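lol ok so funny story. i was supposed to be doing the assay writeup but got distracted and ended up predicting the structure for this chain instead. priorities right. anyway since i did it might as well share w the group, maybe its usefull for someone
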Amino acid sequence: MKRWNPLKISVVVAAILVAVLAAACVFLPRGLFLTGVSDISSGLLMLAALFPFAILGLRSKGRMRWFWMLQAVGWALWFADQCVWIYYDLYLQHQMPPMHPADALLFLAGAPMMAGLLLRPHREPSAQSARLGILDFSLLFVWWLYLYVSQVVCWQYAYVNQDGYNRNFDLLSIVEACLFVAVLSVFWMQTSGKWRKFYGAFLVAVIFNYTWFFILNRALEKDIYFTGSWYDIPYSGSFALYSVAAWLGAELVPAQETSEESYNSWMSNLSAIAVLSLPIVALYALLDPRLPDRASHFRVLVTLSAMFVMALLLFMKHRRLNIELRRTNQVLQEASLTDPLTGLRNRRYFSATIEADVGQALRSHADQRDSHTRDLVFYLIDADNFKEINDRYGHDIGDRLLVEMARRISSSIRHSDVLVRWGGEEFLIVSRYTDRNEAELLARRVLSAVADAPFQLGKSEQTIHRTCSMGWAAFPWFADNPRALSYEEVLTLADRGLHRAKQSGKNCAVGMMPATGKVPSTTVAGLHSDSLNVDVLAVAGPHPATG
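and the output, tada:
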């Protein structure tokens, strides 16, 4: 901790202010000077609470920043209400009138504070949870503002009734206090360590503050309270407890949110309940025979306005959810088509796209398009003697070697080609828009890419040279009869070529082509067809140094 810790200074300043206020209330006679000391001390105590919350907000990021800043906003509203009191007590020098508009500042100060708690700062949200949570928070804030306007402001302007005003203001304040205590109690039980200590201190401050707020407010309604009376000592002193809570929250770090305790799962439920409550309030306002017509019409009008605003927020949330759903589906689809180890495409991707590639090749041959771009060539690749790598160095080294081999092969093919991890140490290249007569060029590039440079074994400086074997075949098999053999049969012929490459000593590529009669041909078994006469083209790989 730094020597001049601003959070600790705030606690010390708050303690001094409480002592000054207590001494003034006990020893000073009732009068303007006592009023000034009490009002100014209370205002400074609020700033002593606002300051550490704002400091923590500037230091934090993400949801934690929102939490601290919302607490600071609440204290700013509270301080603004205190400034109005100071204006009446010291400048106008008469008591603040009942049902003053500034009462809204005092009530609404709890709204951002509660909103900050509902963000659950002890849990770090996912990006999706954070985006959707802002809209749920907006729904709850509009609902809380609506309750104040419909239940309290109604008796302030629509139909002036001080008893109704005081009754509903106190009732909503009690509800707000109960919500604070309930949420903090749940968080206190769910957390441990520093978070538990922070929530405990926050809970004590809230209980102490609201208890003395109700006692002071009742004294104010009975006209027995005056600024500087003994009621100010515990009430204003409770502000110092918030400074202590902020000081205890200096080094808090949120834990990652889990899917089981997702913020949106319960925050969305609260916002849905808030929306559903609006028609009930409107119906009650219309059917309550004790409610004056002007008050009834005012509440219905406010309810309709709130429903419009909340419906707009729900529309925005629904649109955001659709965007998130599409994004999630794209991520899931991409993950299902990608090999997790190498990052290459997998067999599922091959199965999903091969029909389109085959159709393109068949159309190109049917339309007699450029012979240099109308073929589809399959290259099956197998890492030579890969089992001995796993047996000698371990599977982690084997995985590293596969990843590096995949990178080298990928760098040797064109952007239009697709590299697939076929299984184990086998890879498949689907070379699109190519010419079968140039197939051996790609085979040479791949053999060289794998064998030319040694592979590093882990983080050590030890290296080893490796090679691969390949087999390839072009689709369509017969250029003059493209549909004679399916792509599955051509892929099988490429596998036969790979098998021959392995039998020939490895580190080579063997191409399988229809027999032309110009060179001695050989017979191989097809997948579904009878045996085929083929010409075999062998390409030897480079000769790496042993390592």
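The chain is about 65% helix and 10% strand. The first helix runs from residue 6 to 27.
back to the writeup now i swear
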